[in-house]
Amino acid sequence: MNRTVCTRCVMDTSDEKITFNSVGECSHCQIFDKDSQSMWFPNETGKQKLGKILEQIRKEGEGKEYDCIIGLSGGVDSSYLALKMKDWGLRPLVVHIDVGWNSELAVHNIEQIVKYCGFDLYTDVMDWEEVRDLQVAYLKSGVSNQDVVQDHAIFSSLYHFAVQNGIRYVISGGNMATESVAPHSWHHSAMDSINLRAIHKRFGHKKLQSFKTISFFQYFFYYPFIKKMTTIRPLNYMPYNKKEALEELVRTVGYKEYGRKHGESRFTKFFQNYYLPKKFDYDKRKVHLSSLILSGEITRDCALKELEKPLYDPVELKNDKEYVAKKLKLSVVELDQLIDEPGRSYVEFDNWDRHYALLQKLKNILQKVTNKKIKTYA
Amino acid sequence: MLRVRVIPSLLLRDGGLVKGRQFKHHKYVGDPVNAVKIFNEKEVDELVFLDISATSGGQGPNYELLVDIANEAFMPFGYGGGITSCDEIEKLFKIGIEKVILNTSAYSNPDLIRNASRVFGSQSIVASIDVKTSFLGRSEVYVQNGTRGTKINPLDYARKMQDLGAGEILLCSIDREGTGKGYDLNLLKAVSESVDIPVVAAGGAGKLEDMSKAVSEGGVSAVAAGDMFVFHGKHKAVLITYPSYDELKSLF
């Protein structure tokens, strides 16, 4: 297939919403250039800004058991961040959300990090039968974002815990250096519980009892404005290089490296390296590599070479597919059939888009009236 | 191979993994199939699964789940829960289970142990003994997930199990289970001295030293633990861990 590729990063027309400027640079590069000015400070300015934020967190946390909360998946970003938080003297409650797909690498890394940092760990274990039912419902729906179930669970659990423990600072490993490129056309937000419930209602069988969802109101209003919860992304205030972070983790805590991005969840690995490319022709490596090009960690040539590599080793794919099928109580044939069916857009199911549009309107009006910029999670 | 087997002992209830304290207050800790996969990669030598819903619910072993576990497990594993006949035992062996563990039915139907060990060999038949100790220090064997007292002294009971043909005893202190206070060393010592077959300590392990004590002071030949390999830290965060080979080697 002939695709137009961006001249600066490696995103291409497999993102149907992509546009290019006169020199062939894509919309993602342009967004990066704009966002990085207000969000990314891998320099002295960042150091000062972060210093102030940390001081505020520590100050507000005085006398409390924890001053912030962080979700730890075992992946490089959150693990490295945890290590830094120890250096900064933060006292986080570390939460791990177990949705049933943890690899040994993930649990090993979590164990090493919390032991080394001396942080308290709390694990929220999702009821596997419920998660399984939801995941099968998602597979049946054929939407592109199959990680919604775990991503929603992770956020929801983290916010519930934060409120429960009177914590208002959520420290996130999210960062511009390694994940600035995020094509909206590939993924609908995992936070849309209207969509989640609609898909579950159509294809699910079990009642959702222990699975906690975050409503539109909670996400955009209750948590940010009533509970004053703030998400801090410290990695945006410092030079962050994945390779160096990994080396430091291996050296200090005996971190075990994942072969691929998202090796911490067996499902995410299968979903990103098989389901998405096969069903939608989306290759998530392009997103990751483009982010790294834009932040200057790798060159475009290096990324193009990386993309020539096969997505999956055939033996590994066979094993992973069998495991995913078995965990979901499907036969391999059934799983293949679900993946072979044509993909569907999330808009075929009820979703938050109309609420979201209204919210944007309200926000614009409020901003005009109050002459202030309103920051929400959006 | 280590001289002393260190066995994660995992409880099943309605297809999920659970963990409790003193045989009560069970809490969901995850999906057994994924747990097995993690234990595989941690190079665990042996696993034990006890289904606490199989006897009380009356439905017997959950074969479907056990097949999934057996297909995933690289290591030998023992299973107990709801087993009442030799036919069931045969079915379990066919699935790939190495050892069957009998508790309630060993008490109510001693012939089952006798016949099973004759047919399948005693090395594959384990008698599970759950013991509660009263304020006055009097120990009593309990069955049906620790809900029913038998008025029988554990030493007599263990000898009886050996005589019936059990090849191994899984000895659990109900009072210590899930407390992390260490094994009941007196109980371990008394039972292991009164039988010739291997005794596996269970109930109470909170740290690695508890395990070495169970061997050096309690005289057992293997140790089992649940909490230690499933929980981490003061919030009892669910996190599967297992000591490294070197740590275990230096222990015994």
From TrEMBL, chain B:
What SUPFAM superfamilies does the record point to? Answer: Ribulose-phoshate binding barrel (SSF51366)
Calcium in keyword set: no
Sorted keywords for this record are:
Amino-acid biosynthesis, Histidine biosynthesis, Lyase
Record pathway: Amino-acid biosynthesis; L-histidine biosynthesis; L-histidine from 5-phospho-alpha-D-ribose 1-diphosphate: step 5/9
> Is Isomerase set as a keyword in this record?
no
A GO molecular function term, named singly, is: lyase activity
Question: Its Gene Ontology biological processes?
Answer: L-histidine biosynthetic process
InterPro entries noted in UniProt: Aldolase_TIM, His_biosynth, HisF, IGPS_HisA/HisF, RibuloseP-bd_barrel
Q: Which reaction does it catalyse?
A: 5-[(5-phospho-1-deoxy-D-ribulos-1-ylimino)methylamino]-1-(5-phospho-beta-D-ribosyl)imidazole-4-carboxamide + L-glutamine = D-erythro-1-(imidazol-4-yl)glycerol 3-phosphate + 5-amino-1-(5-phospho-beta-D-ribosyl)imidazole-4-carboxamide + L-glutamate + H(+)
What EC number(s) does this enzyme carry? 4.3.2.10
Query: What is the enzyme's class at the highest EC level?
Result: lyase
Question: What's the subunit arrangement here?
Answer: Heterodimer of HisH and HisF.
NCBIfam families documented for this protein: AglZ_HisF2_fam
Q: What PANTHER family does the record point to?
A: IMIDAZOLE GLYCEROL PHOSPHATE SYNTHASE HISHF, IMIDAZOLE GLYCEROL PHOSPHATE SYNTHASE SUBUNIT HISF/H IGP SYNTHASE SUBUNIT HISF/H
Family the UniProt entry places it in: Belongs to the HisA/HisF family.
Instruction: Please explain the role this protein plays, according to its UniProt record.
Output: IGPS catalyzes the conversion of PRFAR and glutamine to IGP, AICAR and glutamate. The HisF subunit catalyzes the cyclization activity that produces IGP and AICAR from PRFAR using the ammonia provided by the HisH subunit.
Q: What is this protein called?
A: imidazole glycerol-phosphate synthase
The scientific name of the source species is: Oleiphilus messinensis
